[in-house]
Amino acid sequence: MLSRHRTGLVVGVALCAAGLALFSGAGYIHAKAWLAGALLDHAWEQRLSGAGLAETRPWPWADTAPLARLQVPRLDIDRIVLAGASGRTLAFGAAHLDGTAEPGARGNSVITGHRDTHFAFLRHLRSGDMVRLQAANGDWKTYRITGSEVFDARAARLDAATGHNVITLVTCYPFDAVVPNGPLRYAVFAERVAPVGAGASRHSPQQQQ
Q1: Where are the domains of the chain?
Q2: Which of 18, 35, 95, 201 is deepest in the core (most CB within 10 A)?
Q3: Contacts by 199-203 with C-beta closer than 8 Å and gap 24+?
């Protein structure tokens, strides 16, 4: 976990980098994404440590807060999951859909993200892949991918999966669509399995397979 001094240094350098990138066109977009990621990681660590409030906001004006952490060891994926899948929230990361089970809780927890950024990796997932989910209390749960499906968002109905512990990862489809905001969605389903590698580090996807 970063010390307060080191975290302040990282954020300070990030702010400088983002400021310089204002003059470099497309570089600004990448700097903004990098800075947001650094702030989200810091907010999540603050929440896990108990140093922050129950909902530690990544920046003062944010209308969301980190809710969980999602990792896919095979693809070296590590994502902070934010609360509330609004358009503004999805611009900064993957997000939990309100009204579905809390990440890690019994039921169907739906997590969504943009197909060209935070959830672009969904196209590379395959049945049998392991997914790890860290809840706000620090506990990790392990899930196995069971399949995927393309559906029409205008006609789909949410399966609450009462009595089961599952997560559904959703993004827009097709991945290479030229026109945004189409009705099709791509969903990947994963079911809870017995913990693997108990006691693994909270931070390294490579150690959590």
Answers
A1: 1-62, 64-207
A2: 95
A3: 200/140, 202/48, 202/134, 202/138, 202/140
